[in-house]
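#structure-requests
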Amino acid sequence: MKNLFLLLIICPLVTFSQVSPVLESYIQEGLKHNLALQQESLEIEKANENIKLAKANFSPKITFAPTYTLAAGGRRLAFPVGDLLNPVYSTLNKLTNSSNFPQVENVNELLAPNNFHDTKFTFQYPIYNTDIRYNLLIQRDLLSAQEARKRIIENEVRYNITIAYLQYLQTLEAQKIFTASRTVLTDFVKLNEKLVSNNVATKDVIYSAEYEVSKLDQQVAAMDKNRNTAKAYLNFLMNRDFNTEIIVDTLGLGTNFLVNVASLREQSVQNRQEISQLKANIQASQTAIKLQEMNSLRPQVFVGGSTGFQGMGYTFKNQAYIIGQVGLTWDVFHGYEKKSKIQQAKIQKNLLETKLEEVQKQIQLQVSQAYFELEAAQKTLPTAQDGTTKAEKYFKVVDSRYRNGQAILVEYLRAQNEVITAQLQESLAKYDILLKKAMLDKVAAIR
């Protein structure tokens, strides 16, 4: 029993203060290297490129577009222009005694031009285009929504790392309890061996004690598996090798938290990025409504043109040309399509506004639930601590009685098991407070 108390003094249960430097360093490492966050960063980069693409539509578009055509067969254009004009031209030449009116051939040309090229530059510049203007505004709103989504993932990563770290430390504390208990049971086996050698007890007490040691070994093996699993998951969240060792924070985090739930509810609505994401999407929907309304009221105007060379064969001689254009497009009527598009955009905005109201209430409910769970966990700890104290005192009495031949084996083993159970329950109660506080920090977006 003295060995048990000595081990518990040397390896006390870890309790945490408000700030753990090691945990915070792991959180920062996770925020920097987590694969999910890296994906969100790439999504933000893509959103920025969408903005650049939207801005590019304000610039003139210049295109180099050469074409060369070869044709054979197909439809032909046949017109007997020679048969019609040549008799007249011959008569005129005789009357004028000249050759001013030459003979012409009948027209018999392929409709598809053969050996024809059109080498040109075309340009187009939007003078007034509501699609371009409002699309840029929408892309900026979508970027804000994407940035808010990244902050949502950051909050989730922060919570997951905190939980994984606490669970890892919890397995270490449980392992220490089992190790200390195994030492006590090993000494108990030796005590029983002495009792048997002195003919005070029979060998069955040795076998029973050794069986209890083997059960503890099984529990230690299971705890090793849990510890390695927690370590691997924590390293996964930080994008590190799964076997990287975890630093144990011995500074401790306190288990007494004073929380103003009303203030937290208000703070959570301000801090939760789900709200920011929805507001950005609502703004994008509002811009989409404006886009559809402007499309129904105003036309799109542009200037453009082309210049280059066009003709048979690539001679470029007497083939130059230039064309200028001013264009306007305006969908006057298409079966009330514009009205339906405006209504759809308004419905989408109303849906998002309803969702925003729902999410705000859900967040406040989450904060209230997390607070009540933390409050209940804090009330449980003193009872668990008192249970450990009483179990240890009871075991001390039974241990003394057993050594004096006044207690039976079953009573001793039951008392020893109750000590283990009480210590594990106290450890669970302590870490449960920290886990509940981590959940409260998550739903209230406390950093």
